[in-house]
């Protein structure tokens, strides 16, 4: 058959354009030749394709076939397939009467929230009496897909009664009952509102158009092309069009060459399963389907034959061995099939993205060459797009960016999180650091104000809402000047947030109003800054569509707002309008259907990614779906396989996957496994697998010109810059990590506390120090009342140290035990002497080689014993250092004793030290002994520590001695505050253990 004979062929006219052929190009050329030969205008034809992108590409193909940029093209419309997650609802080209005879479709936002309301009410009734709105919205999306399936597969809701509940698990019985309620309520609700379900309306319009063609066959050409007829209504339309005087149906890649036994074995996961199901429903024999005529004939395509052989059904794969033997005896037969065909298995997803990006960059360097990356993995697509920018190449990703992850979407989510808990420093700082936050100021004023807030909010989370936040900020610095403007902006936004009893709609409007307030600067209005750019436009449009439906949301707690809002904006996508490279594109499998390019890269070919795992229906089990007549989850795998087979049959194809993803091994796609097996059997796999070469090229992209090894820092400050005043606790740091003393005391660098610290052992320690200080200074209660006094002090001071009711489960019992023990211990200690120093400070100064040194200490408690001696006590809420460690690297208490002996504590004067000990307060075990010494042992260690201190100070007085970073590996601290400045982790990675060189 020649192209001019397409409409002269006996009807019904079903054609197929073979895999490996440029579908849209062949379609345009064939129709142009046929219509011209029949004396018809090309512009009179009406052509239906599965996607809008295919419709746009076909218009370009017709212009190319006409040889001009100014030709009239046919009427091309997107017919729509229910597949993947897209159902095209485009203009079918019917009459106005068709549109007016049917009620309008309910908006997608309204439909989503009504279904969510039903699910939320189900949860409230059948579970714990609470609405779970965030989860209900997610479930509504799945329920909507199920309703779409019921409508498009034309399954009546009454068919649910065919499912016998007695044989189902209890949760499936509940789900079935819920579905019966939904399928009864939903049509009634739509009828009351004079609305139509979008999917049902779509089917009705298709059927109206089909009936009109049947009643009055059109004189203009009608063509349906590229669709697999995934719904019964589309199948009926295809059957009608194929029988029209000037009608035909063109299928994508129907296998007309495989033997009957192979065709009979085709199952649902097979690439041909959708087409097989279609022609069976059309009652058309495979042999009655014509091959689409092309200018260069319909020769067999070696690549398509290879892919078809590799993906044969398991029951028909016996021919593999014979095929492999034929290839091994005649390598020329396979060379054409493998020409331009390559496979890469990268070590991880990052390297896979680099390999894909480098191949796209190669295409850019070849004039007029085009390339197309096809992957369902949106993370991989975004990685590749970002990597292309290293060469200044902008690639258009058809999926766009999720609105929730754009600057506008992120800012709205951050604002919602802060408004829900305005005193949370983490939420506030995340908001302030966002580029769209203005705070009523700009430039350096904005940066300074954010820095002041950051410093002020370090440590425990402020309590008491916005008032607590204000109090904490005022403690840090006065609210004046530009900082006052900055704070007033925060306060104005916070005041917009309604009370906990407000409706969701009120909260939503307050949220958007507050976001605009927070965005404003002294140079630009908040609304202008918030809604600018592509993401601002998309956000404004997305939120506008849902405004009228928000009254459907009822919620019990305002804390739910953030999760609900996040779910509401999920699914919105922002497609950039910036100029993209005209010869490169990134597409999902759905968008790539019927598309062609000189180089096609199929990426993300791991099981669970491409193909995706069989979808799990949360409302119907697999047997329940089968009983209803719904498609099995494997149907989508078959459709995905068809996409893969069509694309991989193209002239130049690169297949890629990563062997690890998220740090875990991956499983290759079943299609990759089959291709590798058949090529390995034919001993030609090595000609296809270019993994090593591609890995090497990608590695060179990030390989530095030279590698400079990092050595341990050896700061040598001059003698006059070296510190001469030390706390006794700093001496241990000087022994363990001199670099920390250099960074803190000489460079003046201080570690900031974390934002919104939670109550921890450190805060318990500070709290107990406060309790014991106040207890010791106050009047001593009777013995029987001492425990109660300690408990009262704990309850009084716990809130200011961050202790809340939620901490009781972990701390209450151990704190109670500690207070009981402390009351007994203090009574016993007072029998030996009197507390003379309570949280007191002492110091002693002395000369060494002409330099004046000062040693100071803050003692938790020093008792003056009845013997006239002093006993030094230090409270510990954790494990205290052992005596061995005190002798080597923890000289705090011996040095405190040295200061006592020298009269450094005014409350004591010079006094002999009878002993010292670390007192473990919390978590004591039965008969546990505290780490300390007394008598001559204590005096000996004090003398030894004094001599060690002199030697240490003299060592660091010498400007030739460096402040090394943790030079003793056996006593390193894994959490040193300045380790990152010393680059210890980097040095450890390069093999020097992180110590000195």
Comma- or semicolon-separated keywords:
single chain, 997 residues, alpha/beta, Rossmann fold, six-stranded parallel sheet, 40 helices, 22 strands, 11% strand
Low-confidence runs (pLDDT<50, min 5 residues)?
Answer: 81-93
CATH topology assignment of the domain at 323-400 and 580-702: Rossmann fold
Radius of gyration in whole Å, from Cα? 38 Å
| Mean model confidence by pLDDT | 89
Could you say which overall geometry the principal axes of the C-alpha atoms support?
A: elongated
Helix content: 40-55%
Largest sheet data? 6 strands, parallel
Q: Would you count the extended β strands for me? A: 22
Strand content: 5-15%
Query: Ends: how far apart?
Result: 81 Å
Second rung of CATH, namely the architecture of the domain at 323-400 and 580-702:
3-Layer(aba) Sandwich
Quickly count the helices.
40
Which CATH class of the domain at 323-400 and 580-702? Answer: Alpha Beta
Strand order of the largest sheet: 3-2-4-5-1-6
Please name the fourth-level CATH homologous superfamily of the domain at 323-400 and 580-702: P-loop containing nucleotide triphosphate hydrolases
Structural class: alpha/beta
Domain PD-(D/E)XK endonuclease-like: 726-945
InterPro entries: Ds_break_AddB (IPR014153), P-loop_NTPase (IPR027417), PDDEXK-like_dom_sf (IPR011604), PDDEXK_AddAB-type (IPR038726)
Pfam families: PDDEXK_1
Organism: Hyphococcus lacteus
């Amino acid at each position: 058959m020649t192209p001019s004979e397409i409409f002269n062929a006996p009807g019904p006219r079903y054609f197929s354009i073979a895999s490996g052929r440029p579908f849209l190009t062949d379609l345009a050329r064939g129709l142009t030749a046929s219509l011209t030969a029949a004396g018809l205008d090309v512009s009179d034809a009406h052509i239906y394709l599965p996607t809008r992108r295919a419709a746009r590409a076909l218009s370009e193909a017709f212009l190319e076939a006409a040889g001009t940029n100014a030709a009239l093209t046919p009427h091309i419309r997107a017919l729509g397939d229910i597949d993947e997650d897209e159902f095209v609802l485009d203009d079918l080209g019917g009459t106005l009467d068709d549109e007016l005879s049917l009620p309008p479709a309910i908006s997608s936002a309204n439909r989503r929230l009504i279904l969510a309301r039903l699910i939320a009410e189900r949860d409230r009734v059948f579970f714990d009496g609470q609405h779970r709105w965030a989860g209900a919205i997610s479930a509504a999306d799945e329920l909507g897909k199920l309703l779409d399936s019921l409508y498009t597969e034309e399954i009546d809701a009454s068919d649910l009664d065919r499912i016998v509940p007695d044989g189902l698990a209890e949760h499936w019985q509940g789900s079935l009952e819920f579905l019966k309620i939904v399928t009864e309520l939903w049509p009634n609700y739509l009828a009351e509102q004079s609305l139509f379900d979008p999917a049902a309306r779509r089917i009705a319009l298709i059927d109206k158009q089909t009936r009109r063609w049947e009643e009055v066959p059109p004189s203009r050409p009608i063509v349906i092309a590229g669709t697999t007829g995934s719904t019964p209504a589309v199948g009926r339309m295809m059957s009608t069009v194929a029988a029209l005087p000037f009608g035909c149906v063109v299928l994508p890649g129907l296998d007309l060459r495989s033997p009957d036994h192979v065709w009979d074995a085709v199952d649902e996961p097979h690439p041909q399963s959708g087409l097989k199901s279609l022609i069976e429903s059309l009652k058309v024999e495979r042999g009655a389907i014509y091959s689409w005529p092309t200018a260069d004939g319909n020769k067999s395509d070696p690549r398509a034959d290879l892919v078809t052989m590799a993906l044969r059904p398991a029951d028909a794969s016996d021919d593999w061995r014979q095929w492999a033997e034929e290839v091994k005896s005649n390598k020329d037969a396979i060379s054409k099939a493998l020409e331009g065909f390559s496979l890469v298995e990268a070590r991880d997803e990052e390297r896979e993205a680099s390999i894909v990006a480098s191949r796209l960059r190669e295409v850019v360097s070849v004039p007029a060459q085009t390339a197309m990356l096809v992957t369902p993995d949106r993370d991989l697509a975004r990685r590749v797009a970002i990597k292309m920018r290293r060469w200044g190449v902008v690639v258009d990703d058809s999926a766009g960016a999720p609105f929730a992850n754009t600057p506008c979407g992120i800012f709205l989510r951050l604002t919602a999180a802060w408004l829900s808990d305005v005193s949370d420093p983490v939420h506030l700082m995340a908001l302030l650091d966002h580029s769209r936050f203005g705070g009523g100021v700009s430039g350096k004023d904005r940066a300074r104000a954010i820095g002041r807030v950051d410093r002020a909010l370090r440590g425990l989370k402020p309590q008491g809402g916005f008032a607590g936040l204000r109090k904490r900020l005022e403690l840090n610095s006065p609210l004046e000047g530009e900082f006052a403007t900055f704070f007033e902006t925060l306060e104005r936004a916070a005041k917009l947030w309604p009370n906990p009893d407000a409706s969701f709609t009120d909260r939503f409007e307050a949220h958007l109003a507050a976001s605009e307030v927070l965005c404003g600067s002294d140079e630009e209005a908040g609304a202008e800054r918030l809604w600018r750019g592509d993401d601002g436009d998309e956000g404004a449009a997305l939120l506008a569509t849902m405004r009228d439906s928000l009254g459907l949301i009822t919620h019990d707690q305002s804390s739910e707002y953030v999760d609900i809002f996040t779910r509401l904006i999920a699914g919105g996508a922002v497609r950039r309008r910036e100029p993209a490279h005209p010869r490169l594109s990134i597409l999902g499998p759905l968008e790539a259907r019927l598309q062609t390019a000189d180089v096609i890269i199929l990426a993300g070919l791991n099981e669970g990614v491409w193909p995706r795992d069989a979808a799990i229906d949360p409302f119907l089990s697999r047997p329940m779906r089968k009983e209803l007549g719904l498609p099995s989850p494997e149907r989508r795998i078959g459709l995905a396989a068809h996409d893969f087979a069509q694309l991989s049959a193209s002239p130049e194809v690169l297949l890629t996957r990563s062997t690890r993803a998220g740090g875990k091994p991956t499983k290759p796609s079943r299609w990759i496994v089959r291709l590798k097996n058949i090529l390995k059997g034919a001993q030609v796999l090595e000609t296809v697998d270019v993994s090593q070469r591609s890995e090497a090229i990608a590695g060179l992209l990030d390989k530095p010109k030279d590698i400079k090894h990092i050595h341990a820092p050896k700061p040598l400050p001059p003698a006059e810059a070296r510190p001469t005043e030390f706390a006794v606790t700093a001496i241990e740091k000087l022994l363990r990590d001199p670099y920390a003393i250099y960074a803190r005391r000489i460079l003046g660098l201080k570690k900031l506390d974390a934002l919104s610290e939670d109550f921890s052992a450190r805060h318990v320690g500070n709290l107990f120090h406060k309790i014991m200080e106040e207890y010791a200074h106050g009047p001593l209660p009777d013995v029987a009342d001492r425990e109660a006094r300690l408990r009262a002090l704990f309850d009084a001071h716990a809130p200011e140290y961050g202790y809340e009711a939620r901490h009781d489960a972990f701390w209450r019992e151990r704190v109670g035990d500690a207070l009981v023990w402390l009351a007994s211990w203090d009574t016993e200690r007072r029998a030996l002497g009197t507390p003379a120093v309570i949280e007191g400070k002492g110091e002693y100064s002395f000369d060494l080689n002409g330099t004046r040194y000062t040693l100071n200490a803050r003692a938790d408690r020093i008792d003056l014993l009845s013997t006239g001696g002093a006993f030094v006590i230090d409270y510990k809420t954790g494990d205290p250092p052992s005596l061995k460690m005190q002798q080597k690297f923890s000289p705090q208490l011996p040095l405190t004793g040295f200061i006592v002996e020298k009269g450094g504590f005014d409350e004591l004067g010079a006094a002999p030290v009878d002993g010292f000990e670390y007192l473990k307060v919390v978590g004591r075990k039965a008969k546990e002994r505290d780490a300390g010494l007394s008598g001559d042992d204590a005096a000996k260690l004090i003398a030894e520590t004094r001599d060690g201190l002199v030697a240490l100070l003299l060592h660091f007085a010498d400007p030739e001695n460096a402040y090394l970073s943790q030079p003793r590996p056996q006593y390193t601290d894994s959490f040193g505050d300045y380790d990152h400045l010393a680059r210890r982790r980097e040095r450890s990675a390069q093999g020097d253990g992180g110590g000195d060189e």
